[in-house]
Fold:
Amino acid sequence: MISAEQLVGEELAEWYSLTPQERWRESAKLWEVFLSLGGSLDPEPDTQSPFFDPGAPSSRPFDGRTGLRLIRRGGV
Amino acid sequence: MGGQACVLYGAAEFSRDTDFAILASQANLSRLRTAMAELQAEVIAVPPFHLKYLKKGHAIHFRCHAPEAAGMRVDVMTKMRGVDNFAKLWARRSTLLAEDGTSYQLMSLPDLVKAKKTQRDKDWPMIRRLVEADYFEERERPNPKQSCFWFLELRTPELLVELASMHPETCRKLIKQRSLLKLAAAGEAIDLIGALSEEERLEREADRNYWIPLKAELE
Structure:
């Protein structure tokens, strides 16, 4: 039998092996970090969605800050 | 039924909106209006919040302004292409209990996979991950229903070949429903890549065609 690690790598295999509750908890942690960094709650523009509306208004940032911004760009 | 459901079922997604499949009835819509009022949610974009749009298959998009949910997007739908009606979805739902005691009613995994068969690039890797996660969790002790689900929905060539070698008789019976299972039965993992890609192309085309008249209604 093919193992999950062989097929998708250790990181994703570990995610697969979590219980739904554990995944929910990990996902919540990610949310906390995202919001603490000023991440916006606006979904990314999804131009392939039939619901995509380029004229839809966007929200203000969650905490009033200006959202994620680039502070250092690495070289290519 | 959206990204949060995918997380609970085993796929990894960082989704910034919350999607709900709801029963489209006048009474239920009144309840939804009350809930949305508590969240101080406004309808954004089109269509407006009317039962007729939900029944036709449109989604209604909200943005919340209540302090505890400020900025959050909520989308509600009642009808999706290729997916059964709400009563059947509800009867098949999964219920998960979180550590804080909150219970979540999720669209069943097979229904979620069907709902994800859209024209969007991002939904297809998600389907693959959802079915893979279920397969790895249950493959040691599958019931016949699960084997059928994997045969019909797995999108991972190596796993389709493995499954076919473990359950050759079921595979043979299901070829009528999914022709690429012939390749799985023959162990042709490389050819399966092309067949899966063609299957995806056809579904995406069907989804685009499904939406043409619906989008036209809103223009």
